[in-house]
Amino acid sequence: MIEVEHLSKHFTLRAPTGGGGALRSFLSRERRVVRAVDDLSFRVGAGEIVGYLGPNGAGKSTTIKMLTGLLVPTSGDLRVDGVVPWRARRTYVARIGAVFGQRTTLWWDLPVIESLELLGHVYRVPPGRLRSNLREFGELLGLGEFLHTPVRALSLGQRMRADLCAALLHDPHLLFLDEPTIGLDVVAKERIREFVRRVNRERGTTVLLTTHDLADVQKLCRRVMIIDHGRLLYDGDLGALQDRFGGERRLVVDLAEAADVEVEGARVVERDGPRVTLAFRREDVSASDLIRRVTERHAVRDLSVLEPDIEGTVREIYEKNLLGA
Amino acid sequence: MLAHLGLYRRLVLAQVRSQLRYRASFVMDVLAVMVTSGAEFAAVGLVFASFDRVGGWRLGEVAFLYGLVELSFGLMDLVFGGFDPDFMGAAVRRGELDKLLLRPAPLALQVFGSEFQLRRLGKVLVGTLIFALAVSLAGIDWTPAKVLYLPLVVLGMIMFFGGLFVIGGTITFWTVESVQAMNVLTYGGLTLMSYPMTVYTASLRRLFTYVVPAAFLNYYPALYFLGRPDPFGLPGFAPFLAPLVGAFTLAAAFVFWRFGLRHYGSTGT
Ligand SMILES: Nc1ncnc2c1ncn2[C@@H]1O[C@H](COP(=O)(O)OP(=O)(O)OP(=O)(O)O)[C@@H](O)[C@H]1O
Ligand SMILES: [Mg+2]
Fold first, then answer.
1. Are A72 and B265 within 8 A, CB to CB?
2. What ipTM was reported for this prediction?
3. What is the pTM of this model?
4. Does a structural domain hold residue A319?
């Protein structure tokens, strides 16, 4: 569905040559090139939810702007269903949806429902379809309580929900979300994740999502792409990422009575009375095997498996550029 | 095309509705616009308290120039408000243009439908009143041709000033700071066109005849309506260039707009 090959976007800035102000920098021949996106290649298939991660200034938004046809690439190939986004802007944007978390697409002074209806006309959504989508999304997102409130009076969480609804009214099969949970509280975030998951599952909508909240990724995405300085550092399975870089999973065992636990494929990392914490790697032993080995030898009151902390994993990748870029 | 007009109508109506929702503040806005606009003309009227003529023109004749350009500019401001460089500059910085580009409708149409401020009718109303005063004072010899040509002159000025707005708005794709220079041209032109060309120095007059053809938009048509001879001896068709000058300016402005959009696509905000 999305095919990106050797995609680059370079911005040329006139470097301020210290002092002299705007005119001086305007006149100065010195230029600095920012490689916001640098030789990026990837594919996204229909129905996927892909998490697009990277530290501030990594080039995530720039990528999304190219994918949505707002920016023209400096070089490289970019096609979505065979279409070059910026070449066929109007037909292309009719088939995609986009939410930029920092902004709203709605009319500031209009009640939410009027904004949504207006968008229905902009996208020429057939009236019946508009009504049924409004009903369905309105219910899932809980828009009812503020449908008649002007957008400027909405809370951030309400606004984001309304924006999500707006982005999907015309049944796009591809949805771009640039930091859709930014600034939201835990409950609001959860609601948005649930909604995105549902739209993906029930409508088969492909989703590309950027975020700084790794919980979004953990709850929504199988696949992640990590980018820094415009270059792709990792593209693959979230679980594999954790195995490869995040290291170990943990098994917390509450024994009936304190004992030494020794099992193959795992090592004890913590002991606290009857509670023993074991660390193990996915490739050495599966959680179920490990649990069986433990319960064969010991009387166990309770068990829990902890996945490695993705936050730490990703931080490590950002910091060390582990993948050897 | 029809669908586009339908969308434009909806975009405009939505704004009108939200502006009218706060009726009291809307009325205050309109009054404020009218008072400002009226006070400016009152200052012109004061000059005529001590002078019989200005640049050889009587009060009624100057009011003709003044009212016609005032009402045309007001109408332009209503329709082209989305392109107003001050508005466009802020919109570009806020990423509003991206928002419009993400929608499957012509961009210019959406910009036209993005800032329709009904309070601008205050200026139109004052302009119309001044124009009515002028017509009653100046004793115009109306012919069918004059009656038919008058709306074309207004249209010409709407297109001319609209073109200046589009050009200024496009400049904001590169820089927001340099827009002030464009504003000087637009609002300077508006003021300049409110008085007869005879009050200006020869060099200024030439500038606004041959370089920026503003004189053909209001002054020369006014000579025709008022039945005054042309002191500068231009060909007899000079009064009838207004619609052409307007259409040309607007067309050129939209060529520049397209160019600006290409630049926007390569740099973003
Ligand atoms: N229009 C522009 N002109 C010049 N430089 C730009 C422009 N847009 C982005 N950049 C630069 O390109 C780089 C990537 O920016 P981008 O907004 O894509 O990052 P991001 O990954 O979305 O970051 P964040 O997580 O902070 O949103 C940054 O160094 C930024 O300063
Ligand atoms: Mg960003």
1. yes
2. 0.87
3. 0.87
4. no
